[in-house]
Automatic annotation (TrEMBL):
SUPFAM superfamilies: Multidrug efflux transporter AcrB transmembrane domain. Its main location: membrane. Residues 384-488 form the SecDF P1 head subdomain domain. Residues 490-659, 789-983 form the Protein export membrane protein SecD/SecF C-terminal domain. Keywords: Cell membrane, Membrane, Protein transport, Translocation, Transmembrane, Transmembrane helix, Transport. It is a multi-pass membrane protein. It comes from the Bacteria. The chain crosses the membrane at residues 510-529, 536-557, 563-584, 605-627, 633-657, 691-708, 812-833, 840-861, 876-895, 931-949, 955-979. This is Multifunctional fusion protein.
Length: 989
């Protein structure tokens, strides 16, 4: 084998990368174990410990902090950790209307309504739909009349064509989505979530947000759906506010003198004695993170300044501590920000804060710390409104200034420019003397994004914001500044909430299924293939290490379907070994030596291995493109697993075999029980093909009958919209009784109740108020649910909940259709290119449709019979596509054997009885590989089905029956049908 040295080098290099990537999990585990030991069950103390470690180096050699290491470990998804995900939809209809100055034109508004209706029905591009609908209503109408306003004059001329307007609107829509993404991300960062995952769903006006560990769903909904408000405020300087803060501190000391002290965290400063009134700022030690005997008195005497709030100060030339100039009045650790604001809200403190002052936090912690800046905002108007609102911004863009430094260029509207001139003149102070220049705070959602110092009056509304910015900072700030101009409300069209208890169950069941499935595979390979099986097992262990390392390196989020994908990949990875080993056994049966047989086995199996893995990888890529959330997680792990499996099972195992051959070691590929398995098999698959056609037809007809009887497919909430709740009771419950209790509270709307794995766990689905876009609708439905469930008299907990609006449901349906059709087209093209015969490609595609129909038929026949719901949802589509992948891998292996046999005979094709014999030979010669691979994957799926938990049972069931159907289809349908598709060619021949 050539390139053994390179393969060893790559294996070692990949191993080092994987070890490094996985090491972060070990480091965070050790830190969190220490936190638990320190806290002894006290969650507040545990969190305080972890907060104190956030900026401490915890990774040896590299000196990475706990916060940095935590961001690099493999994160657990919602189904393993609990939490919430939402899909936000940006209202492009309201955006379009606002760009037209909220016109009252009847045709314009009707076109908006029609476009929105078509978008809800599955349309893809709102702007294109709107322009098309308007042109239908007003064939010769000019959209520029609505959009060529004073604010848009630079981008859109008055004589612009409708195509130009469409391009302008598309650009503004994309910009609005980008700005919404920035705003939502900043809100989530402010919420203090760990490892949130945000994705713009390309080609749509939606943003997907996943927040592991979050349980306060109402707060999150309010946080995400609230309207963003951009404001410009004047600010007080640090020296102007210290007197107020000092007074607050003394009042707090008086009121708290008899209470327990708080944990001190203060600035480490010089403790030299001085008569300066600020000398007391240096009396507390910054490194103290909990109250101890030595600082109790100090903390009581100064509960705010020095204990929680670090005042900005410096030493002058005489060694005296002086207040630092600037807009920041102090910094506070993130964990103490709520406590500081609670102090400010105390009844005895409120009167000490003037009505012209209010405190706000900065957006991000200071570099390398977890400390946030505190600003004192100056209220200059009688009504308490800001000096300037976001509607004053006409445009903002990221730019470069002197020295090629990133900055933001900003333009105001005419009215905004006049106000901007006034407030910048007030802030600028004395001309040519910048010692008293003041800042203006740019605020979004009551958070200070930046507070640049103004060094001169800005008369024309055009100004520049500069500072220590990166180009990403200026891009984000430009987007934020533009946010006030174009109101594009965001609403939640889908959400999914998982409770922590359900997440723990998923972890336990996922790990159990993983371990058992892995043991099953190792045992099978060792028992069936003897010593060669142990080499395959070693390759499997290496493969598992590579899979986890690559996922960690890419920052993947591990979900339960992701674990299923890993387990399934391990099951599928033995396919390459089985292909190789079966070919080696064939060569050994021909009397060849072990070394030659191994070489020939690898050579002859390689084409089939490449083809089968490429087809499955293509299906995984399609899943990743069309799927979302858990489906995409399954697809990513599947694709990663396929690549690492090829490397481990083919290249590394080959190196191991050749090393053993060089040492003249005895390598066996069977034992006395498996030596003659699948020998002398001669099934007449082609001759019985019409019987198989009849069997498949009968099952499909039965499926159609049950489809009519059941009133259609059992569509899940993904496909029809609605809300679904998983509710666990303290005793077994009757589904009919629960449904009867709920319907009156749902005002007569349907309450579909099914068991979810056990009699005391129910899945409740309802369309009640699903069309209601009011922010309170979710709470209203949940309250109605709780009232109905209370009437059952049983104790219960809502373990998870999901909402999907009809709009997103229609998109999922069309996406599912697109995924299946696109898969079939790609498979046909691949087979056509690889095997140069359209009959092979069409036969494979017919088999794919056959498999889909059979799986759907079994779903309709068995729905209601099995103790778990068989719903058609996104996970079912993922299962269908995976089943199609199974069929393709099996079929390609047979086609490859046909091509190989034709090559040996020197022919390009054969017909009639010779073709029948050839196809039967190919099917029988690959039967051992087909059966063994199918059984291996089937057992793996069976383990996951039994131990993998309720949340993926329906998904795994589809894979189980799909595995059986795929094996049957590849043997009895896809290849034999080539005979019938080639009848005309046979006649010509």
């Amino acid at each position: 084998m050539q390139g053994k040295g390179f393969i060893k080098f790559m294996a070692i290099l990949l191993g080092i990368v994987c070890l490094y990537s996985l090491s972060f999990n070990l480091v965070t585990y050790n830190v969190e174990k220490d936190a638990k030991a320190y806290a002894k069950g006290d969650t507040i103390k545990e969190k305080a410990y972890l907060d104190s470690m956030a900026t401490q180096p915890v990774y040896p050699v590299f000196g990475l902090t706990y916060q940095q290491v935590k961001g690099k470990e493999i994160n657990l998804g919602l189904d393993l950790k609990g939490g919430m995900n939402v899909t936000m939809e940006i209202s492009l209809a309201e955006l379009t209307k606002s760009l037209a100055n909220n016109t009252t034109d009847a045709n314009f508004n009707e076109a908006l309504r029609n476009a929105q209706a078509k978008l809800n029905a599955g349309g893809s591009d709102f702007i294109s739909l709107f322009v098309s609908e308007y042109e239908k209503l007003v064939p010769n109408g000019k959209l520029a009349d609505f959009f060529s306003t004073q604010d848009n004059a630079a981008q859109l001329k008055a004589n612009a064509s409708n195509a130009d307007v469409k391009s302008f609107l598309s650009k503004e829509a994309n910009s609005a989505i980008d700005r919404s993404f920035i705003i939502l991300r900043s809100r989530i960062d402010g919420f203090g979530m760990v490892s949130p995952n945000m994705q713009k769903q390309e080609g749509s006006n939606r943003i997907f947000i996943e927040m592991p560990g979050v349980q306060d769903k109402e707060r999150v909904r309010k946080l995400l759906q609230g309207s963003a408000e951009l404001q410009f405020w004047q600010v007080y300087q640090n020296p102007e506010v210290y007197g107020i803060l000092d007074n607050i501190n003394k009042t707090l000391a008086a009121s708290l003198k008899d209470t327990a002290t708080v944990a001190p965290v203060a600035k480490a400063t010089d403790t030299a004695k001085t008569d300066n009134k600020l000398a007391g700022l240096g009396k507390l030690n910054k490194k103290d993170t909990s109250a101890t005997a030595k600082n109790v008195d100090a903390a009581k005497a100064s509960p705010l300044i020095g204990t929680l709030l670090e005042i900005q100060a410096y030493k002058d030339q005489n060694g005296q501590i002086q207040l630092a100039p600037g807009a920041v009045v102090g910094t506070v650790l993130q964990k103490d920000t709520a406590k500081v604001m609670a102090y400010f809200a105390k009844p005895e403190i409120k009167p000490l804060i003037p009505g012209t002052l209010k405190f706000m936090w900065g957006l991000k912690p200071k570099d390398g710390t977890k400390r946030f800046d505190l600003y004192a905002i100056k209220v200059t108007s009688m009504d308490g409104k800001p000096a300037l609102g976001g509607d004053a911004i006409s445009n903002a863009r990221s730019d470069y200034g002197e020295g090629n430094k990133p900055q933001v260029s900003m333009n105001m509207t005419a009215d905004g420019a006049a106000k901007w001139k006034k407030i910048t003149a007030e802030a600028a102070g004395i001309p040519d003397d910048h010692s008293d220049d003041k800042a203006i705070a740019i605020v979004l959602d009551n958070t200070v994004y930046t507070a640049p110092t103004v060094n001169g009056e800005i008369p024309n509304g055009s100004s520049v914001i500069s500072g220590s910015f990166t180009i990403d900072d200026t891009k984000d700030l430009a987007n934020i500044l533009k946010a006030g101009k174009l109101p594009a409300p965001a609403k939640i069209v889908s959400d999914f909430v998982v409770g922590p208890s359900l997440g723990q169950q998923a972890i336990d069941s996922g790990l159990a299924s993983f371990v058992i499935a892995f043991v099953v595979i190792l045992a099978f390979m060792a028992l069936y293939y003897n010593k060669a099986g142990w080499i395959a097992n070693l390759a499997l262990l290496i493969n598992l290490f590579f899979i986890m390392g690559v996922l960690a390196a890419f920052g993947a989020v591990l979900t339960l379907p992701g674990i299923a994908g890993i387990v399934l990949t391990i099951g599928l990875s033995v396919d390459a070994n089985i292909l190789i080993f079966e070919r080696v056994r064939e060569e050994l049966a021909h009397g060849k030596s072990t070394g030659v047989a191994i070489k020939e086995g690898f050579k002859h199996a390689m084409s089939s291995i490449i083809d089968s893995n490429v087809t499955l990888f293509i299906l995984g890529a399609i899943l990743a493109i069309f799927g979302t959330g858990p489906v995409r997680g399954f697809a990513v792990t599947l694709m990663v697993g396929i690549v690492t499996s090829l490397f481990a099972a083919v290249l590394i195992s080959r190196v191991i075999f050749e090393s053993l051959i060089a040492k003249k070691a005895n390598i066996s590929f069977d034992n006395q029980f498996t030596r003659n398995a699948f020998k002398n098999i001669a099934f007449n698959f082609v001759g019985r093909r019409k019987l198989y056609y009849i069997i498949s037809t009968v099952i499909i007809i039965a499926g159609i009958g049950f489809y009519v009887k059941n009133g259609g497919l059992n569509l899940g909430v993904d496909f029809k919209g609605g809300r679904t709740y998983i509710v666990k009771f303290d005793k077994p419950m009757s589904t009919e009784e629960v449904a009867h209790k709920l319907v009156p509270h749902f005002e007569g709307e349907e309450a579909l109740v099914k068991t979810a794995g056990t009699d005391n766990s129910l899945k409740i689905t309802t369309p009640y108020h699903i069309q209601d876009q009011d922010q309170g609708a979710d709470k209203l439905v949940e309250n109605a649910l709780v009232k109905g469930l209370n009437e059952t008299g049983a104790k219960f907990t809502i373990e998870s909940q999901q909402k999907v609006t009809p709009t997103i449901a229609s998109d999922i349906i069309y996406g599912a259709y697109g995924a299946i059709i696109f898969s079939c087209i790609v498979m046909f093209i691949y087979i056509l290119v690889r095997f140069k015969k359209w009959q092979y490609g069409l036969g494979a595609v017919i088999a794919l449709f056959h498999d889909v129909l059979l799986v759907l038929s079994f779903y309709t026949i068995l729905d209601g019979v099995l103790p778990f719901p068989l719903e058609i949802g996104q996970d079912f589509i993922a299962a269908i596509l995976t089943v199609m992948g199974y069929t393709m891998t099996e079929t390609v292996v047979v086609f490859d054997r046909i091509r190989e046999k034709l090559g040996e005979s020197g022919k390009t094709d054969v017909y009639g009885a010779e073709r029948d014999t050839l196809i039967n030979f190919a099917l029988n010669s690959t039967l051992s590989r087909t059966i063994l691979t199918s059984l291996t994957v089937f057992f793996v799926l069976l383990v996951i089905f039994i131990f993998g938990g309720d949340s993926i049972r329906g998904f795994i069931f589809a894979l189980l029956i799909g595995r059986i159907i795929g094996t049957y289809s590849s043997l009895c349908i896809s290849t034999p049908i080539v005979i019938d598709l080639s009848k005309n060619e046979a006649k010509k021949a």
